[in-house]
Amino acid sequence: MSLAPRAVLVHRTTEYEELLARHGTHGQAAFFLAARGRSVDAVRERHEHNRAALAEVAGAVPLTWRQTRVERADLDRFLFGPEDVVVVVGQDGLVANAAKYLTGQPVIGIDADPGRNPGVLVRHRPDRARRLLPYAAGAGAAVDELTMVEAVTDDAQRLLALNEIYVGPAGHQTARYTLGLDGTDVPAEPQASSGVLVGTGTGATGWLRSLWEQRSSTLALPAPADARLAWFVREAWPSPTTGTTLVEGLLGAGRGLRLTVESDRLVAFGDGVESDALELTWGQTIHLTVATSRLRLVH
């Protein structure tokens, strides 16, 4: 007998809750913000919008379903099941935070504070959850299958990301490495830079786009569902031993980017989550490609 669907509500601690945890009381939090020219009222209002949205979505879960909640900080310890319908209540970035832990489950993005989020990934208002939940669990649900980027090291460590993966120094030092492209005759190039960014069409609306615009690149950035990645080297430095020829490009099927570390320590992390980084040491190689898994985002 198959299990009933389970609604997994993904949320994050609000700024107001973080302030209370740090300062103890509403009054102390208000004093702290006032001393910095901010009002606690706006922070509390956003908190209330978020919690009201979460409560509305929870109340919309069918009575025959199971449901649970998981906070962003606990995603790496949460076990998602094949029967889950994942409902992300919050900002666009929270969808990206959850994506790398999923294996094909449908995802509904709920905008907890409309007007403050771009709504690229959290496309729906809370009042649509009652209709969307059973729809997402059905076989005919329409979804966008969004491309993800994958990094695999030579010792089999693996990292997935929905937006982008950064490989470079953890601080402000210079990263040294050799960069090579799979499937081409272009020779690998020793480089010194502030890091390499490899991202998807979803990521092309964020950090990746800022690099693209900064250098007035003529690359055609991929769309979110395109099975292609764009990559950029940040601030490559020319010297007698390092080059600046391979600084941007696109990766399609069968193409990958290889980076062999020539520094004491580099890191690789996805979607801006530095706390979940891979540690890379001298001589180690990391390979970045289009991931086989995709995020299934419900229309």
Automatic annotation (TrEMBL):
The keyword Magnesium does not apply. One of its GO terms (molecular function) is NAD+ kinase activity. It comes from the Bacteria. The keyword Transferase applies. Coiled coil: none annotated. Keywords: Kinase, Transferase. GO terms for biological process: NAD+ metabolic process. This is NAD kinase. It comes from Streptomyces nymphaeiformis.
